[in-house]
Amino acid sequence: MLALIFLFCQIWLSIAQESLWSSPDACNNCPALCNRSYGNITHLGAHDSMFVANTSNSFTVSGNQFYGTDTQLDAGVRLLSGQLHTTNATGIELRLCHTDCDLYDGGSMIKWLKDVSYWMDEHPNDVVTLLLVNSVNANSTLLGASFRASGITKHAYVPATKLGAKTVWPTLGEMIQAKTRLVTFISSLPDNTGAPYLLDEFSYVFENQFEVTSPNNFSCMPDRPTNLKDKVSQAQSSGRLFLMNHFLDKKQLLNIVIPDRDNAANTNSPDPDLTGSLGKELNTCGAVYGRSPNFVLVDWFNMGPAISAIDAANGIIDPDGRTSVSTENPSKATPITYDGSAGRPRENKGVQIAMLIAVLCLVLS
Ligand SMILES: *[C@@H]1O[C@H](CO)[C@@H](O)[C@H](O)[C@H]1NC(C)=O
Ligand SMILES: *[C@@H]1O[C@H](CO)[C@@H](O)[C@H](O)[C@H]1NC(C)=O
Ligand SMILES: *[C@@H]1O[C@H](CO)[C@@H](O)[C@H](O)[C@H]1NC(C)=O
Ligand SMILES: *[C@@H]1O[C@H](CO)[C@@H](O)[C@H](O)[C@H]1NC(C)=O
Ligand SMILES: *[C@@H]1O[C@H](CO)[C@@H](O)[C@H](O)[C@H]1NC(C)=O
Ligand SMILES: *[C@@H]1O[C@H](CO)[C@@H](O)[C@H](O)[C@H]1NC(C)=O
């Protein structure tokens, strides 16, 4: 009898190990992405990731997102953008502020990098990209010191040679295996001495226009770097990655421009037939360049939801391991519905019972 239980447990444990404890064979939530080059994937980006409008600040007009960086990453966002500033009060300490630290102070850069680094520790199969606007022209000594202080450099990817636009990007699987899963672009950075993982954005990337204030006015034309402005074929043949800005602003009194949250469901919609939708612009720009954009920056990432259009661009049908968020505008929706469980895999009753039997077996044997 005991031998029988023992045999049963042996078999059970080996099956359980296979199906429950093996690391997921997925890169950025999808097995099919593992073999694809970093440069052949459309990464969803949260524009101004850390500038959050929520109940804590009465949904400030200076926000670009309703949920913070961790929630974005959990939901499938893989590019985080932000702006670097300093204040007289804090000296050279780099902070993440929206336009000005008096307007919206998103806190210390080191602390934010620490949070991202921690998330990456917890998610070893995910490749994350940062895009930081260097509003204070911080040099690589100062930036590098802050990156090192945060500990995030242990995840950093360094291209083998300084090829800029001509870089041949590894596959996600290779980056994950090499534990170099963080790509960092700085806009701008003339020199990265001492911090080779900090990449000057416009040496590697071109962007279309931003500050669009009408759904009819999204454009695929290159806008920056300035030497590629309106030059589609040069931008294409330069080998740069294409970052598609796709967020809508609206003009207030005195021509002050703020992120448009009222139209965000339309702006971020995967529907390819809606004017100004993400689905439509992905198709339009995809046709212009003969391939999908590499990065898409959106405001209010949860709306649309933007990730649906990105999944379609990547040909992903069944993503794994995401935690989805309500697609509502929480400043309008009552009550706020945060769906904390949908999309989270391997948490059904069957799995829990299987785990329990496995633990009992471990205790018995
Ligand atoms: C990825 O490529 C490797 C080597 O070419 C191959 O062995 C593996 O099956 C591929 N994996 C997927 C998921 O396509
Ligand atoms: C990746 O390559 C496929 C096949 O060439 C192409 O259809 C797709 O648009 C590419 N995606 C990106 C982001 O380059
Ligand atoms: C609002 O967002 C900030 C920044 O992400 C966060 O620290 C705070 O906890 C959020 N407040 C609520 C009520 O979620
Ligand atoms: C910092 O101080 C200088 C000199 O007093 C002043 O000109 C500048 O406006 C201040 N900057 C900020 C961001 O407060
Ligand atoms: C980099 O910036 C820091 C802080 O502004 C400054 O002290 C340092 O001299 C600069 N280093 C170089 C090499 O320019
Ligand atoms: C949209 O673009 C057109 C043509 O460039 C321009 O005349 C118009 O002012 C733009 N509309 C807005 C709201 O920016």
Automatic annotation (TrEMBL):
Organism of this sequence:
Microthyrium microscopicum
Keywords assigned by UniProt, alphabetized: Signal
**What start-end ranges are recorded for coiled-coil regions in this protein?**
none
Q: Can you cite a GO biological process for this protein? A: lipid metabolic process
Q: Which SUPFAM superfamilies match?
A: PLC-like phosphodiesterases (SSF51695)
User: Looking at the record, which segments are called Disordered?
Assistant: 321-344
UniProt xrefs under Pfam families: PI-PLC_X
- Looking at the record's lineage, which domain of life comes first? Eukaryota
Q: Where is the composition biased (Polar residues)?
A: 323-334
Q: Which Gene3D superfamilies match?
A: Phosphatidylinositol (PI) phosphodiesterase
GO terms, molecular function: phosphoric diester hydrolase activity
Q: Which InterPro entries match?
A: PI-PLC_domain (IPR051057), PLC-like_Pdiesterase_TIM-brl (IPR017946)
Cleavable signal peptide: 1-16
Protein name listed in UniProt? PLC-like phosphodiesterase
